[in-house]
Amino acid sequence: MSREVNTFLTWGAVAGARGLRGELKVRYLSPDGPDLQLSGLAVWFRRPGEEALICHRVKETEPQRQGLILRLEKVETSEDARPLFGCEALVRREDLPPLSGGRPYWFQLEGLQVWDLRHGAIGRLDDLFTTPAHPIYVVNGSYGEVLIPAVGQFIIEIDLEHRRMTVDLPAGLIPEADEI
Asked: Is the pTM of this model over 0.90?
């Protein structure tokens, strides 16, 4: 199973069908979901708790509010789509095209050690949530939970090879020594 965890990204869950032509409504389970360019890729489906994978090639996608509509090759009717209802949707990480502007996927960032220019090691990048203004990185470590705006102004370097992110945080995001 550990090989599978490193090979696949679980990005969505099939919530049901749209119409009678086998179109699937898929809601995102990963922050990477909206960035994925799936057309032409093989997508794998798995029932939660099961090992077996079913592969289909994506014909077309249509963005929706919390996910997308997925049209698959050889899935032409609602009956063809029914076995996929409730399945997780996965894609092989190696099949993913690079994101625009050289941005990393969230799965590449998760777990990075985060270092601030003034405070040194502040912890591990554990989570990401989105606000109307910008995403926020959640870092847990010796300073407790630190919320870092995911904007270029604060992110100095992301070194995926060494699993490290260097930041330059403004005053107030981390308590100073005399405040602890």
From this structure: no
